[in-house]
Amino acid sequence: MPLASPPSAAPAPHPPSPAVTMSLEYEAFTQFHRARYLRYAQTRTSDPAAAALAVEEAFSDLAAIWGEVLRSPNPAAIAWPVLRQAVERRSPPPTAATVFHFLPPGHADAVVLHHGLGLPLAETAELMGIDISALRARLAASGRLLGTQPPGPTADGAPRRRGLP
Predict the structure, then answer these.
(1) Would you call 81 helix, strand, or coil by DSSP?
(2) How far apart are CA 46 and CA 118, in angstroms?
(3) Which of 22, 83, 98, 92 is nearest to 52 (CA)?
(4) What are the Cα distances from residue 115, in Å, to 27, 60, 87, 139?
(5) Where do the record's region annotations for Disordered lie (predicted)?
(6) What pLDDT digit, counting tens, does each position of 149-161 carry?
(7) How do the residues of the chain divide into helix, strand and coil, expressed in percent and rounded to 5?
(8) Residues 93-98: contacts with CB within 8 Å, 24+ apart?
(9) What pLDDT does 157 receive?
(10) Region class of 30: left (phi > 0), else alpha (psi between -120 and 50), else beta
(11) Which CATH class is domain 93-153+160-165?
(12) What's the rounded Cα separation, in Å, for the pair 69 and 119?
């Protein structure tokens, strides 16, 4: 009766290649942001098909520069303008009825995300790749520019909470 050969040692697993790692990180990024990007794009375009195309275009543009995005200390800060540009290409021109007619793009985005879509401050800031204090400043300035938030203290003399209605 032949002797059984000793079990062979399994080869050591190889670390994933950089392309696989990039792909996994890219997929995680797109899955994490897709739903909120789509909500924003649908609000801007008023067309679900155009919104979906804009988001896919933005993700494709990001894939082309993914190495740069990953090296950035704040990938969302690179991704947000890419998304905004893709959405702008598929959006109708701003009318006097939209915040995009009156406000700089970053301010209008903050208003749409926080007030229009109801995202919390922290989530809005994270999505746009800015810190909360910068978001609050944009929202406060937007309120003043739109005439919805007067500057200075409230009617009872208390300091106005910046960035909040």
Answers:
(1) helix
(2) 17
(3) 83
(4) 29, 28, 19, 9
(5) 144-165
(6) 644 444 444 444 4
(7) 65, 0, 35
(8) none
(9) 41
(10) alpha
(11) mainly alpha
(12) 24
What is this structure's pTM?
0.76
Q: Please tell me the predicted confidence (pLDDT) of residue 17.
A: 42
* Residues near 36 by beta carbon (within 8 Å), at least 6 away in sequence: 117, 119, 123, 127
Q: Which of 145, 74, 149 is nearest to 107 (CA)?
A: 145
CA distance to 5, 142, 144, 163, per residue, from 153 (Å): 85, 17, 13, 13
Tell me, rounded to whole angstroms, the distance of Cα 60 from its chain centroid: 15
What does the DSSP 8-state code read for residue 156?
A: T
Which residues of the chain carry a pLDDT beneath 50?
5, 10-18, 20, 150-165
The answer to whether 112 touches 137, Cβ cutoff 8 Å, is: no
Q: Where are the domains of the chain?
A: 20-92, 93-153+160-165
Q: In this structure, what token pair is assigned to residue 114? A: 């926080």
Q: What is the pLDDT, as a whole number, of residue 165? A: 42
CA pair distance 61, 43, nearest whole angstrom = 21
pLDDT score recorded for residue 149 = 61
CB-based contact 149:159 (threshold 8 Å): no
C-alpha distances in angstroms, 28 versus 16, 63, 75? 16, 12, 12
